[in-house]
Amino acid sequence: MTTFKRNILITGGAGFIGSHVVRLFVNKYPEYRIINLDKLTYAGNLANLKDIENLPNYVFIKADICDYEKMQELMELYHVDGIIHLAAESHVDRSIKDPFTFARTNVMGTLSLLQAAKVYWESLPEKYEGKRFYHISTDEVYGALEMTHPEGIEPPFTTTASSSEHHLAYGKDFFYEDTKYNPHSPYSASKASSDHFVRAFHDTYGMPTIVTNCSNNYGPYQFPEKLIPLFINNIRHRKPLPVYGKGENVRDWLYVEDHARAIDVIFHNGKTAETYNIGGFNEWKNIDIIKVVINTVDRLLGRKEGEDMDLITYVTDRLGHDMRYAIDSTKLQKELGWEPSLQFEEGIEKTVRWYLDNQEWMDNVTSGDYQKYYDSMYKGR
Ligand code: NAD
Ligand code: TYD
Q1: Which parts of the chain are coiled coil (predicted)?
Q2: Backbone φ, ψ for residue 197 (5° rounding)
């Protein structure tokens, strides 16, 4: 029987970000056993991991993180010594329609995983020595920033908050690691609650936890209910592009593989009990990013660039729609040397190309229940 140097449980590994993290760890660390635990909800898809599924250091377990007994059993069975916890309900619009599911998975599920790890690790002679519970969270827990700017300068403007030269910002405030939590959506409220439980397990029991709060991710394998893949697919099929409100909301976009690299660095070198913000220093108004996506899809499909602009359709705004998110990730850059590797233009080109080249993946995830979801979310909006 092979013995592995580490046994790392990754939850939510069949989802968007999780699949990139699993792929990175399985390929980069053949000496680690990677146990991917996922319930396979609508957002989880094993097709995201086809290229690594037969590797000897990879195991997949279909389970619900809320199943506490199962979590306990798995900790012992696989001698888990590290956890990277990504499993969650992740879509704000769904949380507005069905907050209970978010409280169940994001709060109770996280608690069940924490307690199972605690009981198992405390039963070992070395206890918490060499262990790590790494919780993946979001910048949305911090609430929303205003579109403020220095006098006389219209945004976007260059700021000194970042080491990045090309940093354009829509306000002078950022989310820092010590920014007060102020979540507005049921999604962000459930993530905030789970973050508090993770920190409480450190403060109360001494569990070696770590939390990171990341900005919006984009890239391959994202479920097409989120802005970028949804719009790429709609442009391809010349379907309307439902822009919420005036399209003025700002998000800070990070290429998903850069997030996965940050998770790798932080899992190995981050300090216990610390929080790190992860972001791209890459703020975009929704309407501007949508125009870039339209131009890119048109160009790559051999259409006239911009000919699909008339698909833009302004619809009723999202309830409680947060105006602006912007992460300051200076701490991570300074302390652990991580920086985003891709310029946005390069990342969006790669992303659009991937979705256009992987129509079969898109067709699979948009068949079945997807159409019902789409109709219920956008009909009459
Ligand atoms: P996703 O919705 O694509 O994937 C979530 C995965 O979790 C799916 O595979 C799903 O099957 C699984 N899952 C859901 N409920 C489960 C349960 N009860 N038990 C076991 N597995 C379950 O999400 P994502 O975009 O990849 O986000 C992953 C994590 O990163 C989440 O915790 C999210 O809050 C956080 N995050 C996401 C972003 C982003 O832009 N997508 C940004 C910052 C943080
Ligand atoms: P989304 O991808 O859902 O991420 P989040 O809400 O976590 O930031 O949305 C990104 C932005 O795009 C957000 O401001 C809402 C907006 N949006 C639309 O305008 N239309 C859409 O159909 C969707 C899904 C999002």
Answers
A1: none
A2: -65, -40
Give the pLDDT confidence score for residue 43 in this predicted structure: 96
Question: pLDDT averaged over the chain?
Answer: 94
Apex 318 CA angle, 374 and 309, nearest 5: 70
Candidates 89, 232, 251, 311: which one to mutate for ligand 2, based on the most atoms within 8 Å of Cβ?
251
Report the range of poorest mean pLDDT among 143-157, 225-239, 243-257. 143-157
Identify the three-state secondary structure at position 85: strand
Cβ(217)–Cβ(348) under 8 Å? no
For residue 162, give the nearest of 344, 346, 339 by alpha carbon.
Answer: 339
Ligand 1 atom nearest to CA at 217: 40
Domain layout of the chain by residue ranges = 1-143+181-214
Q: What is the pLDDT of residues 323-360, one digit of tens each?
A: 999 999 999 999 999 999 988 889 999 999 999 999 99
pTM > 0.85:
yes
For ligand 1, atom 35, which residue shows the shortest CA distance?
137
Whether 167 is in the pocket of ligand 2, judged by its Cβ within 6 Å, is: no
Cβ–ligand 2 distance for 311 under 6 Å, the answer no
Contact 267, 134 (CB under 8 A): yes
**Residue 152's pLDDT is what?**
64
Give percent of the chain with pLDDT exceeding 70. Answer: 94
Q: What is the mean pLDDT of residues 104-123?
A: 98
Give yes or no for residue 159 having a pLDDT over 60: no
C-alpha torsion sign, points 144, 147, 150, 156: positive
Pick the CATH number of 1-143+181-214 from 3.40.50.720, 3.40.50.300, 3.40.630.90, 3.40.250.10: 3.40.50.720
How many A from CA of 27 to the centre of ligand 2? 32
Q: Which residues pair with 82 in a beta bridge?
A: 8, 132
Q: Is 242 in the pocket of ligand 2 (CB under 6 A)?
A: yes
227 C-alpha vs ligand 2 centroid, how far in Å? 5
Cβ atoms of 297 and 347 within 8 Å: the answer is no
Nearest residue (by CA) to ligand 1, atom 19, is: 64
Residue 166 predicted with pLDDT over 50: no
Q: What span, in angstroms and rounded, lies between the C-alpha atoms of 108 and 282?
A: 33
Would you say residue 162 has pLDDT above 70? no
